Write the structure tokens for this entry.
Amino acid sequence: MTREILERKACISGIGQSQIGRRLGRDPLDLTLDACLAAIEDAGLTRDRIDGIATYPGALGGAPGFTGAGVTEVQDALRLELSWYTGGLEQPGQLGSVVNACLAVASGVASHVLCFRSVWEATAQGKGKRAGIGLPSAGGGDGGGFRPSGSMEWSLPFRAYSAANWIALCAQRHFHEFGTTREQLASVALNARRNAALNPQAIYRDPMSLDDYLAARMISTPLGLFDCDVPCDGATAVVVSRRDEAAGLRRRPIGVEAVGTAIRGRPSWDQWDDMTTMALRDAAAMLWERTDLRPSDVDVAELYDGFSFITLAWLEALGFCAKGEGGAWLEGGQRIALDGELPLNTNGGQLSGGRLHGYGFLHEACLQLWGEGGARQVPGDPQVAVAAAGGGPLGGCLLLTGPR
Amino acid sequence: MGDAPDKPFRLRPRVTAANEHFWRGGREGELRFLRCGPCGCWIHPPSPRCPACLSKDVAPAAVSGLGTVYSFTLNHQPWVPSPDHPYVIALVALDEQDGLRLMTNVVNCPAESVSIGLRVRVVFENHDDDVWFPLFEPVS
């Protein structure tokens, strides 16, 4: 008996996004509800038909602005009658929540699951710069009082206050083993900026040259300022429906061909066996274990760029190029341009579009498959897209197919 | 914040019975990890069972303190104001076991001189309290 790929019973029936910007100063729940209601309307549904919620990371403390709303706030604000819900940090990355929704509708515990991710980091950080984890400037207490525990115990006391440091360690190892260069990595950032110029919602839309990239201040070698995504305020939502429940809705839904959620190595930023790969290696491998489609079938790729290096790692992990060859493959950037062989991060990613934290990639993948990318629409009627999110010990991805 | 003028600000870990051997081993000049009695596996971060053989017979033991830089980064971003930017954050692979690895700082050398493969040994930084931070310096 062949194994059933259960996620194919799920589809994406609608997408929505709030206003996106720097320091909007708006109530984060208000932004979240804007995105959620937009997605519900886009699907041609009404809120009384939403019977599930899935989100990442849910309501929690931590870095200011990291989460705009949890399950209960959204449920209560919209007075939803839920059959099933989930939210939390311990998931296969931000898109792990969408995978949960797919499995929920496929199993029949819900029919239409509202998935969302909302951030307000730009407003929360105010005029200050991006803060390090646990530091007084990040609400970590008075420095003498805050005591990191859990996984943070092994990084923060060594002055590694940010994922910028942790990912830099991965990037440096990749540079060492494979001869990857900053000029090669720049292709990810420059491509994002070119695409952002065509996206009215993007944060950074002014042209950027390789010289601009190289001249920007260093954050944590080999990562400079433009290797790091830009904090923003904004929310993204999608509705995941069971396919048989989506018939007759406003749109022909996007298909979920396969999901990747695996983590087979140690769940750690610093104890991962091969630091040039990260956990996304296993999520990507699993994706291809669940489909007959191949990397060459993918028409558009939306790959997490919290830091530029993470995109390179996803490209290798998903098999768009061989392990270790991501730098050379990216060189010049022609391959990943809108008219290239693999259009990448077509809305400007998080590097230039804004740090919507994972969900922005899924939103853009759906938009492209629906042919609604506007000025940045990938030519040739793309039919297969991959959306991937997460770095370090977090990684989750979805292979999506065009509307039918 | 209790940090000596010649030492950078550091967040202190929450020292517990489970991790005290690591954070206070420096008092005796030793870098300690849990080690499995039956199979000899070194364990980091600490865990009540050996991940290799699942034995509960695990106890702190000292390593040589010698290792190799697996990766590193020069942190330029002023998360906390400090005169010593850029400073070196490193992953050090310890000699005792493949995969026994620690995030730490490489000190007592120019930041620009650090490279992957550099041989290092442990040194401890104490801020006149009950935590000894295990850092590394080049083996000259």
